[in-house]
Amino acid sequence: MIFNTGAALLDAIVLAVVSKEKDGTYGYKITQDVRSVLSVSESTLYPVLRRLQKEGYFELYDKAIDGRNRRYYKITETGREKLNMYVKEWGNYSKKITDLFEYREIGGNEND
Prior knowledge:
Blueprint: H1 7-19, E1 25-26, H2 27-35, H3 42-54, E2 58-65, E3 68-75, H4 77-106
Antiparallel strand pairs: 1-3, 2-3
Helix pairs in contact: 1-3, 1-4
Domain Transcription regulator PadR N-terminal: 14-84
Pfam family, one: PadR
Protein name: PadR family transcriptional regulator
């Protein structure tokens, strides 16, 4: 992707990914799901997960899988509220950008 991803957009994407799983999901799966839409490293994502958890947007729990503990992240009600705010803001923002791009395609400046 050629566009930079700001912290708020990354937070929104992580919240959206975690919210899709009713019982939560684990770090590696979150990383893979986020990476399916963004080019981002694990070293970038894990601090985001920790910060969002610290801010009360996730609950954490451990689950034993094949003899190993796996840390799960589950969205909280506060996290859902934050995600809903991001979704609303994204709708407004993306509509404005799309409107600008569509204007450019239709008429815009003929000298370009």
